[in-house]
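In this section we walk through a basic example: taking a raw amino acid sequence and producing a predicted 3D structure, encoded as C-alpha cells. The instruction is simple. Fold the sequence below.
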Amino acid sequence: MANMKYWLWLSQRKGLGGGVLGRVLERFGSPEGVFFAAPEEFRQIEGMTQAGVQSLEDKSMDEVEATFRRCDRLGIRLITLQDARYPERLSAIYQPPLVLYCKGREIPFDDQVVIGVVGTRRATEYGCRVARTLSRALTRQGAVVVSGLAQGVDASAVYGALREGGPVVSVLACGLDVVYPRENRRLYEAVAQQGLLISEYPPGTAPLGTHFPVRNRIISGLSVGVVAVESPRHGGTLHTVNHALEQGREVFAVPGPWDSPYSEGTNRLIQEGAAKLILGAEDVLCEFRDQFPGALAPPKRRLPHWEGQRERQSRGGQCASRRAVRAVPAPSGTSHEKIGKEVDIPEELAYIDWKECSSTLTDDQRTVLLALRDTLLRVDDLVEHTQMEARRILAALTILQIQGYVAEESGKRFRAAVRWKME
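The resulting C-alpha cell sequence is shown next.
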C-alpha cells in the first residue's frame, strides 16, 4: 500500500502529457523517486512545462487518501504498472496507464484472444446487428470482447457478448462509479457482474470529451486485434484503429453499403489496405489460432456457403492475412532529394483551423501532417525528417488519408490535402 500511494499520486499529476510523464519515470526510476526529487531536477526534463513542475511540487496526499477510501467503498481494485497482474501487452504500448481501476472479475488478458469491437455511436440498424452477431460468435468460440459502453456499436457489442454468457470488458472514459451514458446503467451493471470494467481515471471523474480519444488506446492496447464495425470518415473509431496500427495490432473492418456515410470510414480502411475485410468471426479468429493454442474452440463446420472456401483454406493452414499497409521501400539514391521541396498546392484547397482539428489527432498524426505542410515527401523522407519509426508513419498516413487531410501523389509521395490556418 505504501508503494501504491506514490503510483496514485503520480497518476493524478497534471500537465505531464505528450510523453513527459514517461520521461519523468525514466529519469527517476519510480514514482517514489519522483516524489522525493528536487524541484530543480524537473525543469531539466525535455518538454516539461511550468504547470507540470508545479504539479510535481505538490506533495499533498489528500487526494490519494480520498481515492483509496472511495475505491474501498465501491469495491474497485487498483493495479499499478509494476503489478504482476498488469496486462503485459498493455504495458508495452506508448504511454501505458500508470494505474488501472478495475471492477468485476479477474481476466488473464495475456493468455486470452482479446478482440476490440468498436464503431460509431450513431450506428445504423445494420451496424448494431453486425456488432451483436459478431460479438456473440467471438465469445462463443472463446474470445474476450472489449469495447466501450457508448450507444451504438459499443453497446451492441457488449450486449452480444453478455448474451452469449462469456466475459466482456468495457473500458470507460470516466470514473467507475459514473455511468455514462445513463441509459446504459443495466448494461454497466451486467458487465460489472459478468465481466470487467476498467478505467485509468479515479472514481468521481466525469466523462469529459478529451478522455475518449485517450481511452481508446487502452481498448486497442488490451487487444490482439481490433474490429471496426461501422464508422464515418471522422470519429473515435478511427482513433482506436490508429492506436491499433501504431501498437502493431491486427485490424479488421466490416464492409458496409457503399453509399452509407456511416460505413465510409470502414470501407476506406479496407480500400487503403489498413484493415482486413471480414464476413464473420472466423475471419478474425483464424489469425490467432496458432498463436493461442487451446484458447479458442474449433471453428464451426457448418458455415454459410460464402465461408466454405475460407474453411477449406483454414484446414490447410491458409488463412487470408491482412496485406501490408502501404509498405514503401526506400528508393536508392533519392531519399534526401525531396525533403523541403515546396509543393504547388492548388488554390482551391480548403483552409482548416489547426487548433480545432489538431485536438482530434494523435501526436504521430500531428507530426506527420506538419512535416507535409507545403512539402511533398516519401515515407523514407518522413522517417528521416521526423525520426519516427516507419510503421508509425504508415499508420498515421493511413488515417490522415481516410480523413482527407493527406493525399498520395505519383511515386508514393504524400502531401497535405488541406491548407492549415495556424493562428
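Looking at the output, two observations stand out. The first strand starts at residue 77 and ends at 80. The mean pLDDT is 86. In the next section we compare this with other chains.
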